[in-house]
Amino acid sequence: MAFELALPDQLRKQGWKIKIRERERLEPPHLTIMRRERSWRLGLRDGQFLDDEPDPGNVPRELLELIEEHWQTLCDAWDAKYPNNPVKQKDDEDEQQDIPS
Amino acid sequence: MSSRTYLLERDERTATQFAALHPTMLRSHRDIVDALPTATNQDTWIIPRNDLARELVKATAGQSRRFGRLLLLDQTPLQSVPPLLRYFQPVVFAATPCAFLPPEELACVLQSPDRQFLFIGGSVDHKSRTCTLWRGDLSSIVVPFDAFPAAGDGTRPDFQDFSVTDYGQTLRFGRYEAATEAVLYEYDPDYRRHLKARRRAEDTGFGPSLRRLRKQRGLRRSDFAPLSAKTIARLERGEVEKPHGDTLAIIAKKLRVKPDEIEMY
Fold first, then answer.
1. DSSP secondary structure string, B109-154?
2. DSSP single-letter state for residue B2
3. pLDDT for the residue A68
4. Using alpha carbons only, how large is chain A's radius of gyration in Å?
5. What percent of chain B has pLDDT over 90?
6. Half-sphere exposure (CA, 13 Å, Cβ side) for B72?
7. Rounded Cα–Cα distance for residues B168 and B230 (Å)
8. Strands of the B24-26 sheet, one edge to the other
9. In chain A, which residues have pLDDT < 50?
10. Whole-angstrom distance, CA of residue B161 vs CA of residue B149
């Protein structure tokens, strides 16, 4: 079942959703913020928006604060669905894992 | 001349749900007959219920031109489709009940500037193990069941229980949800071009594309023999120039794409 972060009534009524679904693009790990037909991907490795459009400035500050508050839960949710591409696998670790010593 | 949307519906409450499209309402056989002379092949016809679809079949019989695109939202008897195909292209129809977005979401997607990258509905064919998915521009894409692998937590798609949700951004198969963009990323080159234009500058170029596609295919850097894992790492980080010739061919073969397609991911 898709992970969906519980939102306060006000944000929920405005149509905002935060999801990590079973089938996402794998790289990089991210959560998806949705409102109506628009969505924003937020990277779980660096906390940055992954795309310039739609304008990240349109995501309300309260929503971003809520994401920050639940950051570890969101990272855990990603790792549970995508154990082969976990959040904490940094580039160097990936290389070390791939190159036999 | 701008295109029009015709809504063939008798019930006012249902009509209200499509208000965002500012449709021309057609409530009877007479209304349909009166509308046909001024309709163009740029127009969109939406029919929530089958009774007026039958009236449309009768009204168009014997006509000699096309009237636009047709969206049949009710479960459509297959015998109604061939006569309508003569006068409408494309004809989008539901092979199973409730395969389309709810009306308000459907109206929103149909007028979205990104409608070609959102799904409005679809159907599942268990015999061929494929899903036909309709997009907001009324074009379609067919994807195999294999496009929906089990998640790491064990959640698997239930293809008996399909719907499109989140204003066309999510495909739901029982408890399993797939991002529309993940499906298009794999199966639609136009979507990959669209994404490339939206991507942050530091995420463009051969290296980031190689890394994204490698991860998407579930490959490790050490899977590119005879190239070393260190070479792949340097390419991904942009520390060396984009490869050519045999090196590029080896990488592309492992990634199961053509060499010039890598940078589209």
1. HHT-TTGGGSEEEEEEETTTTEEEEEETTS-EEEEEGGGSPPPTT-
2. -
3. 97
4. 15
5. 77
6. 27
7. 41
8. B24-26, B5-8, B44-47, B69-75, B91-94
9. 92-93, 98-101
10. 16
- Digit-coded pLDDT (tens) for B15-68: 899 999 999 999 999 999 999 999 999 999 999 988 899 999 999 999 999 999
CB contact under 8 A, B178 and A97: no
Contact A32, A50 (CB under 8 A): no
Contact state of A19 with B177 under an 8 Å Cβ cutoff: yes
Chain A interface includes B61 (CB < 8 A): no
**What is the C-alpha to C-alpha distance for residues A63 and A17, in angstroms, rounded to an integer?**
9
Proportion of chain B above pLDDT 70, given as a percent: 97
Residue B93's DSSP bridge partners are: B72
CA distance B69 to chain A (A): 22
**Residue B196 token pair:** 């490339």
Residues of B in contact with A51 (CB under 8 A): 195, 198-200
Residue type, position B204, single letter: T
Q: Which residue of A has its CA nearest to B173?
A: A1
The predicted complex's ipTM stands at 0.90
Ranges A52-61, B172-181, B202-211, B232-241, most confident: B172-181
For residues B186 and B171, is the Cβ–Cβ distance under 8 A? no
Q: Does the predicted model carry a pTM greater than 0.90?
A: no
- Cα distance between residue B184 and residue B168, in whole Å: 12
Q: Would you call B221 an interface residue with chain A, using a CB distance cutoff of 8 Å?
A: yes
Residue B22 CA to residue B20 CA, distance in Å, equals 6
Q: Looking at the predicted structure, is the pLDDT value of residue B13 above 80? A: yes
Cα B135 to chain centroid, rounded: 3
Evaluate whether B71 touches B60 at the Cβ level (below 8 Å).
Answer: no
Instruction: Give the pLDDT mean for B177-193.
Output: 94
